[in-house]
């Protein structure tokens, strides 16, 4: 608390950032196969660390009223690209196939070659780091009837920006394709906090 109406602090946040074109596809011949996203080269995660300020616009002066705060945050967003590994059908002769785990390569892996997504833990030793920045702006509504308890709803938006396009997808050489990689990711969020205060 800086005073009765202003707070400051630090925050850390780890998130999985998904492209809006990510759609899981499932193997129609085996229900146990994991879903995969066709053309997806990398999964993308971000570790955000930044400074945050909270400004009270409307104080809860009377019991039963609603307080209104504005929260602004910004800092570093460390992007992490983890390559996608898939389970691939590999022919071994006489019309027989085995499953092998390989890093997805759209130049050699056709749609019909893919059985499903490999283990989540494959590819961690190949992570690439992309430094970037983020900005967050939100509004907090405190509507608890009692001062000893916390019940707040926060709604807002977060913008992550990186110096280069993030290669989540392989972009096919097809004029009809609408796939695009991007440098900036805008997300909307809402958070419900509840708890109790101790003096």
Give the structure's gist in a few sentences.
This protein has no helices and nine strands. The chain is mainly β and 199 residues long. The chain is elongated and about 80 Å long.
- Radius of gyration (CA) equals 23 Å
Average pLDDT taken over every residue: 91
**CA distance, first residue to last residue:** 14 Å
Broad structural category: mainly beta
Discrete helix count = 0
Q: Characterize the largest beta sheet: strand count, sense, and whether it forms a barrel.
A: 6 strands, antiparallel
Could you characterize the architecture of this molecule?
The chain is mainly β and 199 residues long. The protein is built from no helices and 9 strands. A 6-stranded antiparallel sheet has the order 1-2-3-7-8-9, with no helix packed on it. Strand 2 and strand 3 form a beta hairpin.
What is the element layout, followed by pairings?
Layout: E1 6-16, E2 42-58, E3 67-83, E4 85-93, E5 96-103, E6 114-117, E7 128-142, E8 149-166, E9 182-196
Keywords:
single chain; 199 residues; mainly beta; six-stranded antiparallel beta sheet; three-stranded antiparallel beta sheet; elongated
